[in-house]
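Table S2 (continued). Query chain:
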Amino acid sequence: MEIVTVVLPASWASALVNNDWSGLEYDDPDGAAKAKAWQMESGLSVLSCGEEPFVHRFEGLLTTCLEYQCTPVGGKP
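Corresponding output:
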């Protein structure tokens, strides 16, 4: 199984890892829309994320991020 590591906002963790969008949609509707767009466009499924947040530039803004481990959707085991 191919594993790809990407850096994304930490606030997206629960939505992407647990497929629980309720908190993100409530707290940050624009962020939820961006996370969903990323998920659709990337063709990746998030498996897990790191536990150590760090500041990183995402879409031109400094934000708290995590490393996410992903696999291509429809990827071969």
